[in-house]
Amino acid sequence: MNAQASQRPIYVIGHRNPDTDAICSAISYADLLRRTTHPEAVAAACGTPNLRTEFVLRKAGMEPPRLLMDVRPTTGVICRTNVMAAREDEPFMEVYRRMQQHRLKAIPVLDAERKVKGMLSLMQLMHLLIPDEQDLGEQRILHSTLARVRSVLGATFQNETDAHQKEQLVMFIGAMSQEGFKQRIQNYPAGKLVVLVGDRPTIQKEALDMGVRAIIITGGFTMKDDLLEEAKAKGVAVISSPLDTAMTALLARTAKPVKEAMKTDFIKFRSHDLLHAIRDDVSEASQDLFPVVDQDDRLVGVFAKSDMIDPQPARLILVDHNEFSQAVQGSNEAQILEVIDHHRIGGGLNSREPIRFINDVVGSTCTMVARMFRQHAIMPDANVALCMASGIISDTLFLKSPTTTDVDRDILAWLRHYVPVDLDEYAREFFAEGSTLSISSVEDILASDRKTYTENDWTISISQAEELGMDRFKQRKQELYQALEDYVKSSQDDFACLMITDISTQSSQLLTAGNPKIIGAIDYPNLERNLYNLPNIVSRKKQLLPQLMWILNRVHR
Question: 302, 320, 411, 480: least buried by Cβ within 10 Å?
């Protein structure tokens, strides 16, 4: 792995609408990776934790994994965050020198809160020095401070008065006769005038008599003592410039703030904007550099058009699933590094390079992750051990599900040495926690643990809810059926069902909606229209799904 790749995160992530096993296996495997080979591993989740998973995280004292709903390339991924920027009030010369030093053609201009106020290019900076013909009259005007004028000239104050006061200054070169100077200077407001003059005491005296704002003595000369005393008495600032008059006049104008040159009509993007959605806007823009901002308009980074040519894909490790239909949005454009799962293999997963793919006949992905801890002779921390134990308890119904294997029993017995609770009591609390049927909307109930499958050109979804008894299901059966119907109509699925599992009796009921050919082929005992009894069936993966796959391969449109 190259150095650049190692700086990007590796997201360990479960399926959409994640259950406890998906989230706990992501957290645990990311922890193992950080302790072994990949310090950049980050646990992520494609959906918020359900009530029982929230219970696990509270008991373990852990934060939920990072919410990651889409891994397609965004501006936040491609932008450079080490950004050279300018402040609104910075003088031209400071910014210009910085841009030259770093060979920058454009930079963002920020206010004191790092909000992007404009974009600045070298061409726009040049316009401060060489304005259009119609703007020549503005060439004398300088919005700045005398301190900045002194700074860009590399000059010194002989008399300093209000040097840091921001003001409008009018530049005037006193390269003429005393009479001509006296006549011309009458056309300008004395209190704003900055007179540039060489070693010409008569011109300096006229400027002092008029009470100008400042006098800049050029050529490295200084003001004579008697005139300097008069300047101090009248509050006229005096600056001694080491440059000749021509260069002093040129560089003095570079004390203008870049705010006067920046472009306020510019294109910016949010950090979550998808590249495919903005590609046309970027390609058609005349802008060279594009700022990326957060929700408060503060600068996150910048990117150029060339950065969009071949963006680096997200790096993913999939846990508890291996089908793109169940994976986070954009996973088909990501770099899949590993898959760790205990479900059927399907869904069109492919990779450009060989990957580590571990699929085992066990009851829980957390079983597989815990086994890796043991194989590496790494003792899990108590909170991680509890996460892995919770995934096993959830997916195997505390070792009572038909999906349970001897490996699950062995691993859970091993984890008992590291967890900070009594697992028997903990399991009772876990299953009693938060009935989704009692507190969630019908839409949330169907979405909280939904998986989508494709077989023989049919697309189906199976949701599952685990309850202690069927009372709540009976109360909400009709609205759940209507929600299933609405889901089928609004989605691409041909069939959808909700499997309600009664943990206390180790049996389920199946509520169905969708294509009548699929529903008509279901041969479970029919309780009523679209509702079936599933005695001794508690596993979606091992018991229900194979039966539905068998039906899909025999039913044709």
Answer: 480
